[in-house]
Amino acid sequence: MRTTRVRRAMVAAATAAGLVVTAACGSDSDSSSDSGSDGGVTTLTFAASTFGDPGRGPKLQEWLDEFNASQDEIIVEAASVPYPTFGQTVLTQMGGGEGPDLVRFDMPEFEAASDAGLIAPLDDLVDVEQYDLLEEPDRFMVHDDVRHGVIFEASNYAMFYNADLIPEPPTTYDDFFATAQSLTAGDVFGLAFRQTEAEEAGVWQDIFNYVYGFGGAWSDGENLTINAPENLEGLQAYKDLYDANVIPRGADAATFRRMFAEGKVAMELNNGGYATHLRAESPNLNFSVAPIPFPVRSQGAILAPIVINEASEAKEEAATFIQWALEAENQAALQEILGASSVATATERSPESLQDMPFLTVFDELTETSLPQVVLGFEAQTPDIRKIVVQNVIAALQGDVDLETALDTAQEQATDLVG
Amino acid sequence: MSRLRIGVTLRVVGVLVVMGIAVFPLYWMFVTALSSNADLFAADARLLPDFSELGVFADALADGEALTWLRNSLVIALGTTVLSIGLGIPLGYALSRFSFRGKMLTAVVLLLTQMLPEALMVVPLFALFNRFDLLDSLTGLVLANSAFVLPIVALILKGAIDGIPRELEEAGRVDGARPLTMLLRINVPLIGPSIAAAAVIAFFHAWNEYVFAVTFIYAPETQPASVGIANFIGEVGTPVQTVMAVAFMFTLPAVAFYLFAQKYVVAGMTAGAVKG
Q1: Looking at the predicted complex, does its ipTM rise above 0.85?
Q2: A2-31: per-residue pLDDT in tens?
Q3: pLDDT tens for each residue of A249-269
Q4: Which residues of B touch A257 (CB under 8 A)?
Q5: What predicted TM-score, i.e. pTM, was given to this entire model?
Q6: Residue in B255, B162, B154 with CA at minimum distance from that of residue B198
Q7: Which of A56, A80, A252, A276 has the highest number of chain B CBs within 10 A, making it the mutation to test binding with B?
Q8: Structurally, how many domains does chain A consist of?
Q9: Domain annotation covers residue A330
Q10: ABC transmembrane type-1 domain: which residues (chain B) (predicted)?
């Protein structure tokens, strides 16, 4: 009797589930992120991790809507790819001959994709001569005289500080350290940065400022210089702050940025994109921005190119969108959305923006001394070198090995990798 | 009497501690979802939910996206469960009851597949799914998840069938039953608890799966909740309360399925005692 009941229940459950699966198969999305043409309208997908930002995402969507409304032959839709696995996901899709038509990459993934032939050359698709492109960031868009991308966003790193807690920003590393120490008490921390392997790309972005800010470099253009004395000095400064317990250890970027917005973190090094986000999410927060107070005025920059997927079946249409994006008024609109970041061309900041964020000029003045966070000369191998460096630096942070040995190990492993 | 009472009390306390450990993460998600920004990073953690913040759940559901993700997750998880159990039963039966060349090798290979991380399979599976036009479809994800979970389901069911006396089948054979009849009429009812346990494993695997889903699915309306929740994590900001609200809702159907399946696991475990 019991067996019969069990069997009946199982059959009923299996039947119900089977019906759901059948319905699911019927309800499978027939839309594809691949370009598709329907009634003369070509639909393109555009993947950008910024679409997920609570502050900037909705405004970027409105910007796309403006393009869609400007003509009736092309529709650009935002592709939904989560930020934590954005590069890995999109590169896998592109490697398989699929993926979004347009992609906003970060530099390491851009370099890897262009090296692998996954990005369509733009020379025959977009005539960049007719636009006033910013030279410094744009030079990284061209490889061996072939243009693979156009800058979508260029964002320099600077020091964000809570102006209620810090009336005068520190101007030297010693001041920076002392300020962080003096403000750390109870549930308030003087500083925050990324320090876990789960945020490998973020740790790389953070330590880049310490290495270059202390006069170091990951390479001399021909050879790796991971264990150079200047790098050791910069990373020792990073480790000293970690050891001094002035940061919320273990907190990820999402957490400590919320803490900054709540006045629980006094300082952090971040790029210009963060300014707009803070203004939108925490309008009452009294924060300001100053150059990073390290010995050498050299810091990282987020360079984010927009590219066309080599596998796209609608490259011409994708290029039409890029051309629209490069038009002066659309660049100005994009600049307003991105806030403290720059765009591909030189644009005037509006008086309203400057009144709202007077520190915008700080970011603009850093453009000449900012570098993309790639290993110069080894751009395509940057993601692999990044993994090696971050793993070894974090091992040193956690006390598994001393920092000098960690950098020697990283140098050896990365040299083996690049050959 | 008092010794008995102490024993009962200790047992109750033990159960409560274990329940607390199991339920606390769920509770903490709920409390975090209902915390204001100020409470979220206060020195003293708030232990009780602030019901004045209940609107976060309504906000999370407002545009209907979260419900679509949950529906997709449910379809993928149920589909994977049905398919892997449907294929796992005959596979487990064959490995248990039939002698054929390469039987041991098959079992070992099944075991080895469990040692391959999903990330290793993404690229070859992507190419395969692209070829068969299975990308961006729930059917594709059901197949991918089933392929990954089928070996463990088959091995669980093989173990269960191994435990059934062969005499029962021999009696059936005397009555003229064919192998399929014996499988469905004799073995399947007796391995109900193992099927339920395997179903729980298959369901949870598919429910939580992220790597295949994020790579094989492009369209927002086809994304499961595991990917949808990750979409909240932005480059410069993450709405913690919204993430926790959706994550809390994400756990509830899985808990419900477990409670449903657990009934059959327990029923099977106690069946022998009743029959004596």
Answers
A1: no
A2: 445 544 444 444 444 444 444 444 444 443
A3: 999 888 899 899 989 999 999
A4: 236-238
A5: 0.78
A6: B154
A7: A80
A8: 2
A9: yes
A10: 70-261
